[in-house]
Design goal:
Elements: H1 3-19, H2 24-46, H3 48-76, H4 88-94, H5 105-114, E1 121-127, E2 144-150, H6 163-166, H7 171-196, H8 200-209, E3 219-224, E4 230-240, E5 243-252, H9 255-307, H10 323-372, H11 376-404, H12 406-412, E6 416-419, H13 420-433, E7 441-444, E8 452-455, H14 457-474, E9 480-486, E10 494-500, H15 535-545, E11 549-556, E12 562-572
Length: 574
């Protein structure tokens, strides 16, 4: 499969995703907002402090009823005249008749038949154990006097589900029961395990051992009853003075229903929180996901537009003032730079074609004329023209090659500290050593402290050589080209390098054109074809890559007449 064929499916997938309302980033935002709410909900279901508060409130209500039962029974169900005397020898030893501590079964029954019909729960009356063993209660059923289930005078009518839906054989019923059982064990596993360790015997022993002067009499516990139901239970001793005649145990179920109802009360708030999370997710999607998607689609269109020689537009989100706006600005700048580079390449290719066509046309004309030329002088002159045009083409191709790979070389080459004074000294010394008669000499004062900047020494050397070569080419025979280095005078740390000559100067309308590619306008009498017109353009390109500027101006005498050209290079110092 070709590369173009592979890209087409990817573009189709991107367009398909663009048409889908929910993206992966949208789902990520929604899940990120909901995960915290779910954790909060699960935590609220399993929180022990909230559950213990509900259970404690339930126990306080049961304790009040149990204490009331114990106080009434202590006044009604104790009959000291109906006691059984102990052994005579034991009675004589203390000088009195001692009776066993017991409750009247008849009086206990009458109490439950007449009062407290509004209490919904189970009440059990246990006799006081007549033993000195520790613990005194080992089997609560052996001490049981009465066991009453009290209910409120209210009939509750509840419609049962159809038999086929409520049967244990129904799959939905089994799934619901399994889910309920799992959630109950998951949420209250530790609480139920501790309740399973509590027994009625342990509760009775704690109640018997409790201090009669305590503010809250008796003992409390949350445990399972005989039917496996979780109940809140309170046991209070039936006392008269300091004697214990029995124990009242009041217990009430519905603990799990109470906690479940409290948890269900949280669900509406959780629903509102989920709705708010979804709303904020949609807002975040509109503020983040959608702009990013638009930028991605626009980037694809830019790529397709470049391939189709078109121009695509990147959406402008810079007014947002956030990271999306910065990304939009960066993509727009990058796209403009790409289009500018494409236009520069197209313009450069057109200029190269034009510059190469001129010598080729001259060579073709000379070769066609050479075939019909008969005089040796004419043929020699035509051969000279051909040689000059070939040399010009060779120079053009070399300069064009250097210019075309200049950007890549500048990007690859490392920047380092460069002593600009030493660099100019070496360049000027090279011109002095290789100077020929009647050529313009190059002058430079190498004295002074080093002047450093961060850059590429090879590229900077090419800049100054191009400027000096250009100045020498316009200087009169035996003239002078002067190079000046001006160190940074203040904190701006801007270094200036000036190259000036004594030539005819530059026409005012050409002060900027001289930096254009292939600009080779020269005074009459200058040798044609000795310059490619790329030197100054390359120099500006290198200076700009070093965050500097270069411009051209004319030198004038007192009368204002031009007496030479001056090129100024400004570079940031180190």
């Amino acid at each position: 499969m070709s590369e173009g064929a592979a890209k087409r499916p990817r573009r189709a997938i991107r367009r398909l995703r663009a048409n889908v309302a929910v993206s992966r980033l949208t789902l990520t935002i929604v899940l990120a907002n909901l995960i915290g709410l779910v954790i909060l909900l699960v935590g609220s279901f399993g929180v022990t402090q909230y559950r213990d508060g509900l259970v404690q409130a339930k126990l306080e209500g049961v304790r009040a009823q149990a204490q009331l039962f114990a106080d009434v029974l202590a006044q009604v169900a104790i009959n000291e005249s109906d006691c059984e005397p102990v052994a005579a020898e034991e009675a004589s030893s203390i000088g009195a008749t001692v009776c066993g501590l017991s409750l009247s079964q008849r009086d206990v029954n009458s109490v439950f038949n007449r009062v407290w019909d509004s209490f919904e729960g189970r009440v059990r009356i246990f006799a006081a154990p007549q033993t000195d063993e520790v613990p005194p209660v080992k089997d609560a059923s052996a001490l049981l006097i009465d066991d009453v289930m009290l209910r409120a005078d209210e009939i509750v009518v509840e419609e049962l589900a159809p038999v086929e839906e409520a049967t244990a054989d129904n799959a939905l019923w089994r799934v619901a029961r399994s889910a309920e059982s799992f959630l109950r064990r998951f949420m209250t596993g530790g609480f139920r395990r501790s309740a399973g360790l509590r027994t009625i015997e342990a509760e009775l022993n704690e109640a018997l051992a409790a201090s009669p002067f305590a503010e809250d009499r008796g003992a409390t516990s949350v445990r399972f009853n005989e039917d496996g139901e979780l109940v809140a239970s309170v046991s209070v001793p039936i006392r008269r003075v300091q004697a214990i005649y029995g124990v009242v145990t009041a217990e009430i179920g519905g603990i799990e229903d109470l906690v479940s109802d409290a948890r269900l009360a949280i669900l509406p708030f959780f629903g509102l929180a989920c709705a708010a999370a979804l709303l904020t997710s949609l807002l975040l999607t509109a503020a983040i996901a959608q702009p990013i998607r638009q930028l991605a689609i626009a980037a694809d269109k830019v790529r397709e537009g470049i391939a189709a020689a078109g121009r695509a537009r990147i959406p402008d989100f810079t007014s947002r003032g956030d990271e999306i706006g910065e990304l939009s600005a960066s993509l727009r700048s990058m796209t403009q730079a790409i289009y500018a580079r494409i236009e520069a390449i197209e313009s450069f290719a057109a200029d190269v074609a034009h510059e190469l066509k001129n010598p080729l046309t001259s060579i073709r004309s000379a070769t066609e004329t050479l075939d019909i030329a008969t005089k040796p002088e004419a043929r020699e002159k035509l051969m000279g023209v051909i040689k000059k045009d070939v040399a010009r083409m060779d120079r053009l191709i070399t300069d064009i090659s250097n210019a075309s790979r200049l950007d890549a070389e500048l990007a690859r080459q490392a920047r380092e500290a460069v002593d600009l004074r030493k660099l100019l000294t070496d360049i000027v010394e090279l011109y002095r050593v290789t100077a020929k008669p009647n050529e313009a000499r190059v002058a430079f004062d190498p004295s002074g402290a080093p002047v450093y900047l961060f850059g590429n020494a090879t590229a900077l050397g090419q800049v100054f050589r191009n400027l000096i070569d250009n100045a020498r080419s316009f200087s009169p025979p035996g003239g002078e080209v002067r190079v000046f280095l001006i160190p940074p005078p203040d904190r701006d740390r801007v270094i200036q390098v000036i190259v000036e000559d004594d030539g005819p100067g530059i026409p005012p309308d050409a002060l900027e054109k001289v930096f254009s590619r292939f600009y080779t306008k020269r005074p009459q009498g200058s040798a044609f074809g000795n310059n490619s017109g790329l030197g100054l353009a390359i120099s500006r390109q290198i200076v700009v890559s070093h965050d500097g500027v270069v411009w051209a101006e004319n030198r004038a005498d007192e009368k204002g007449d031009r007496k030479g050209a001056r090129f100024v290079v400004e570079l940031p110092g180190a």
